[in-house]
Amino acid sequence: MQHAIDKASLGPKSKALTQGVEACVHCGFCLPTCPTYDEMGEEINSPRGRIFLIKEVLEGSVPMEDALGPIDNCLGCDACITACPSGVEYDHLITAFRAKAESERSQPLGRKLMRSMILNTLPYPNRAKWAFRAGGLVRPFKGLMPKSIQPALDLLPPTLPKAEYLPEIYPAKGPRRGRVALLTGCVQQVLAPEINRATLEVLSANGVETVIPKDQACCGALALHTGAEKRALKTARQLIRSIPDDVDALITNAAGCGSGINEYSILFAGEPDEAEAIALADKTKDISSYLDEIGLIQPPPLAESMNVVYHDACHLAHAQGERSAPRNILTAIPNLTLLEPPDWEICCGSAGIYNIEKPDVARALGEKKVTNLMSTEPDAVALGNIGCMTQIQKHLESYEKAPPVLHTVQILAKAYSD
Amino acid sequence: MDKNITRPGSIAEIIDLVHSESSLLPIGGGTKPSLTQTDQETTLVDMRGISGIIEYQASEYTITVNAGTTLSDVVAALGENGQYLPFTPPFANKGATIGGAVAAGLSGPGAYRYGPLKDFIIGVRFIDGLGNYVKGGGKVVKNAAGFDFPKLFNGSIGRLGIMAELSFKVFPEPKTYVTLSASFDSSNDAIKILPKLLGFDLEGVELSSSNELHLRLGYQEPTMAARKAGLEAIVGQPLEITLGVHESKRWSSINDFSWKGEGAQLFKVATNPSSANQLLEIVRQSDWNWHLSNGGKSLYLASSDAPLCKTLDTQLKKLHLSGLQLFGQTEALPIFGQTTGLSFVNRIQKALDPKGLFLPFTATAAEPA
Amino acid sequence: MELLPELAKLYPSDRLFTKKSQLITYETDGLTSFRSEPLAVVVPESNEEVIATVRLCHKAGIPFVARGSGTSLSGGSMPVEGGIVITLNRLNKILKIDPENRFTVVQAGTVNLKVSQAVAAHGLYYAPDPSSQQICTIGGNLAFNSGGAHCLKYGMTANHVLAIKAVLADGEVIEIGSESGDTLGPDASGFFCGNEGLFGVALEVTLRLTPKPQRYCTLLAAYNSLKKAGDAVSSVVDSGLLPGAMEIMDRLAIKAAEMAVKAGYPQDAEALLIVELEGETDAVEEDFKHLLALIENTGAYETRVAANEAERLTIWKGRKSAFSAVGRLSPDYLVQDGVVPRSRLGEALVKIETYSKEYGIDVANVFHAGDGNLHPLIMFNGKEEGALHRAEELAGKILKMCVEMGGSITGEHGVGVEKKAYMPEMFSEIDLECMKRVRAAIDPKEIANRGKMFPGGEAPALSTVGSHPLEKAGIISRE
Ligand SMILES: Cc1cc2nc3c(=O)[nH]c(=O)nc-3n(C[C@H](O)[C@H](O)[C@H](O)COP(=O)(O)OP(=O)(O)OC[C@H]3O[C@@H](n4cnc5c(N)ncnc54)[C@H](O)[C@@H]3O)c2cc1C
Ligand code: SF4
Ligand code: SF4
């Protein structure tokens, strides 16, 4: 599309902010995959509409304030990127625009509090643990709490699993085929420590030694996706410092973290340490991609055969374009049958902190997703992202015989140990 | 009949008629007599003076002809190049014209494979009620410019204007045909088969009142046995093969409605397999003759019983179906049963024929109050 | 009568948009060089709301535009300045599926591909497949009589529409056509198709469902010249085979499609030809042998056969993404949609190439070769002074060429605002006047999609050079 944006005024983010506008041909191919469009059927709440709106704001014909509603509604699921034949880098566009918006927005106190509460707790495992504990305690009194934090409370688990002790180095079994570092993830460490454990076991079974840097920090994805750029930079820098140079890859097992690191080129645009950040991003791989790349060591069959439906996490399938690796490694298990749900491309509603900020839409999407998954009559749901895991588990609660929701590596670990 | 009839030889003469006469009805070969029945005030315009093929390029899959050209001439010209009108219009052997086929909106058994006449008409030139010579559509197989007059004139029964020139999309015709037939105990049993013929490329699916189902295929030697076996599995009984002259005779007799009987009234009802079956429930209790064509999409009813149209009108209304009378004394409008769509047609007619030169789409008992 | 307060009574505030930030996203459709801002946008959730809205507009004499997914490539769903946009995206339910009698009834806002998905379990599908099928709506298809890759054999949208329930521009609700498809009396539903939104708003549409072919056989042939590919099409046609689809893409289109979806197309080809046969397994496989033998003699330097459904879909995905993918090659482009008699395809392509050189503007070609429907994509950079006008001039030349060759200015994208100035190339004053009389009988106040399709009138013809008169008047804008 043509535009009259004054690029010079946008600084280092100008490329991210205009590439999408320029490449978009307004064809609408992204509409059917957009969860907010699917729910609302409104142009303003579609990727194409948002791009148009951003253009108008940047051109100065619409005030930033008026554009925030639809922009906030975007889940950042990146489904529109997969759908777009014209190569619009919507992820970069929205991230850069949100950063800009955040610095200009005047926001109501409730939202501020809410965001600050989330951004101050979730990325820090210890704080998160306390917050979840505290949250669990106050849940019965939810009605008394301010409305804006009620949805957050709904998501909290009633009890937390026991913390897992992770060693600094997890050795490879058999001849060594590789050495990697593991990003343990902030929320995941607290909510589902068994995922990291399974990751280590599967890597080990595949002859890979894993380093777990102690002083690693949050990747900054959560802050970045909500426009809190300074905070994102700070924790990202700490992470970069903590990863040793001599590893083949930085492994992520939460798709959200992986896609967050992929966006360092935007976050660090114009920063002095831009090159280092990009180098780390290039090295970062989802666990499934890594295993598929090095060639999975044939897993033995599971104790019992299993029909598994695979849920494509947006941050893996759309943001990282990875759909085949998880399927390849799952179907490597001899007695596992892989099922595909309808409407795979549509988000489950968990993206980022969406289910906390836009609970109604998130709920509708969660219900739809679970219906689609259950239509395949699975024994288990497999996926590669903790956010989706919590969301899907929550919406499965209403089912009588809800199948377990597992990370891809958990199923593999089971096969290797069975 | 000393009807007021005239045979113009040019467009200019037709335009003169529009300016000089007060009521006109174009006619072709008169093979659908109910559609050309009028009172004394109406001048019949015999279109057979405007005939001949205007443009035909086989490799384009299109043909443009004058409206008064006989179907047999069109069919012959196409046949020379191995092509045909895939909707196989009826009465081709009885002197029907192409304009008459369009005005009646009549397709034959061939419509089963690729669709009825309305799917193949791509262009029309007509004289409207003000004497304008108007063009709609074009001569290429695909065209989306302007209002789709060619479609509108399909079934216009001479009441929206006088078609002078028509363009069609045409297709290559199978070189040889073969017919596979089975006989059933009841029409009900046979109709149940129709929806199951899914995915078979058949050139015709016809059910006669003697409960004989005829399936027509383009003959292709290497695959014949396999296709026959596939169809037998669906039909649930062995199929009898007819080939050659017998085969083509069977289909031309269907196309000529020879089953109808001399002097009988003939009606066409637009149906689908389910509604055809419902209507046949009633028909079976009478001595009406019937034939289910085009895989259940057109049910033809014949009777020498005078009050058929009244009875039929009531039944059709009940079932939300509509019918067209082709033979026999008829009302002012030969359309029966449900006619809700005609209010829209009437508005268009007022635009094309503001003076009311052509016969109206109203003035029939069938119009709901 | 003041329209806005009346609309406010009809719609809650979250379904009635009047703020600039909301309205601008509806300013344009798939042809972004034309934009205009409506007075308001409404998001109805029932037929009754649509009907009431149309009646209010009629009473107030305020124009309206029905909008499906806004993928029109001719400005068809661009709002009328100061008018109302009626969006139909929430009216997207499939109301009835009757597999026995092979039809379905859907609301007009239903997305084309959703229909096929919904009936797939019955072995049926909805045949018309415009490249935009994953998002365009049945209402939009109907208004434009949209086509797709399979038109030669299966026809356009009108051939698959059995019945329509609609509200006419003056508020009358009509029901035309029948579930049978064998209509009696004038084919009113066929006539309604392709009206470009000028008659009113379609609400519910009964569609013919087609049995899914037992077997598809698809091949991809690569040529080192466009002419050879064109000639190959002629020899297929002359052989008496009737393929479901025959599509050609040229070098630029191949490049763009490959960048977008990695279909694995031969990258050094000057032209790719896709031919698809479909039908009964045995019969098709037999025909396909003939086809392969035939293609062998057409000078293709590489021929690939889709070995399975996945490979077939990949071939098609590249083709169907081609338009949008050209966005990767050029910041702006115009898509044309002219038709020429198929036997003159080669001649037409040579002419387009000459024009392209003459103007120094790249043109990518993707087209439905089977029915002579060209889609030249004229690439330009809108930032360059006068580039759009030159591109439009070139587009105009192509359209005139199509008409001169006995074809049409549009095969499937409709006239809209973009091509209305070219209507007189195809139709005489008398023809147009007759169409206008029909329109007046249905929409005496000319409120439905005012300013589209007909040249002149309240929205004067788009001139090929210089700014559009509406631009000068500040009514529409293009940057
Ligand atoms: C990338 C791309 C590829 C395309 N490929 C093809 C192709 O292969 N073949 C093809 O034919 N087209 C193609 N198109 C054009 C376009 O998709 C079609 O014209 C489509 O039918 C428009 O549907 P829509 O829902 O987007 O309608 P819109 O663009 O919203 O509207 C189109 C017109 O229909 C009217 N309208 C919409 N709904 C209704 C209704 N319910 N009642 C009355 N009028 C209504 C509007 O007023 C407007 O005039 C393509 C477009 C794009 C962007
Ligand atoms: S698919 Fe891409 S080019 Fe098309 S509207 Fe969406 S973002 Fe724009
Ligand atoms: S990121 Fe997801 S929610 Fe946001 S516009 Fe794209 S598809 Fe829609």
Tally of alpha and pi helices of chain B: 11
Secondary-structure element order of chain B, as H and E?
EHEEEEHEHHEEHEEEHEEHEHEHEEHEEH
Average predicted confidence as pLDDT of chain B: 92
Gap between N and C termini of chain B: 34 Å
Low-confidence stretches of chain C: 458-479
Shape of chain C: globular
Widest β-sheet, arrangement of strands of chain C: 15-12-14-13-17-18-16
Principal-axis shape of chain B equals globular
Major β-sheet strand ordering of chain B: 14-11-13-12-16-17-15-18-19
Proportion of strand residues of chain B = 25-35%
Give the largest interface: B-C, 86 and 97 residues
The CATH architecture of the largest domain in chain B comes to 2-Layer Sandwich
Bound molecules: flavin-adenine dinucleotide, iron/sulfur cluster
Oligomer: heterotrimer
**Tally of domains of chain B:** 3
Number of strands of chain C: 18
- What is the helix content of chain B? 25-40%
Mean pLDDT of chain C: 91
Detail the poorly predicted runs of chain B: 364-369
Give structural attributes.
heterotrimer, A: 418 residues, alpha/beta, Fumarate Reductase Iron-sulfur Protein, Chain B, domain 2, Rossmann fold, four-stranded parallel beta sheet, 23 helices, C: 479 residues, alpha+beta, Uridine Diphospho-n-acetylenolpyruvylglucosamine Reductase, domain 2, Uridine Diphospho-n-acetylenolpyruvylglucosamine Reductase, domain 3, Alpha-Beta Plaits, 5 domains, seven-stranded antiparallel beta sheet, 18 strands, globular, disordered C terminus, binds flavin-adenine dinucleotide, binds iron/sulfur cluster
State the gist of this model.
The complex is a heterotrimer of chains A (418), B (369) and C (479). Chain A has 418 residues and is of the alpha/beta class.
Structure overview:
The complex is a heterotrimer of chains A (418), B (369) and C (479). Chain A has 418 residues and is α/β, with parallel strands linked by helices. Chain A contains 23 helices and nine strands. Among the domains of chain A are: 98 residues, Orthogonal Bundle (Fumarate Reductase Iron-sulfur Protein, Chain B, domain 2), CATH 1.10.1060.10; 119 residues, Rossmann fold (3-Layer(aba) Sandwich). With 369 residues, chain B is α+β, with helices and mostly antiparallel strands. Chain B has three domains: 195 residues, Uridine Diphospho-n-acetylenolpyruvylglucosamine Reductase, domain 3 (2-Layer Sandwich), CATH 3.30.465; 79 residues, 2-Layer Sandwich (Alpha-Beta Plaits), CATH 3.30.70; 71 residues, Metallocarboxypeptidase-like (Alpha-Beta Plaits). The C terminus of chain B is likely disordered. Chain B is built from eleven helices and 19 strands. The longest helix of chain B has 12 residues. Chain C is an alpha+beta fold and 479 residues long. In chain C, helix 9 crosses helix 11. Chain C contains 16 helices and 18 strands. Chain C has five domains: 85 residues, Uridine Diphospho-n-acetylenolpyruvylglucosamine Reductase, domain 2 (2-Layer Sandwich); 119 residues, 2-Layer Sandwich (Uridine Diphospho-n-acetylenolpyruvylglucosamine Reductase, domain 3), CATH 3.30.465.10; 110 residues, 2-Layer Sandwich (Alpha-Beta Plaits), CATH 3.30.70; 94 residues, Alpha-Beta Plaits; 46 residues, no CATH class. Chain C has a seven-stranded antiparallel β-sheet, sandwiched between helices. Chain C has a five-stranded antiparallel β-sheet with strand order 5-6-10-8-9. Chain C has a four-stranded mixed β-sheet with strand order 1-2-4-3, with helices on one face. Chains in contact: A-C, B-C. The interface between B and C is large, with 86 and 97 residues. Flavin-adenine dinucleotide (FAD) binds next to strand 3, helix 5, strand 10 and helix 11 of chain C. The site of one iron/sulfur cluster has 14 residues of chain A, from helix 2, helix 3 and helix 5.
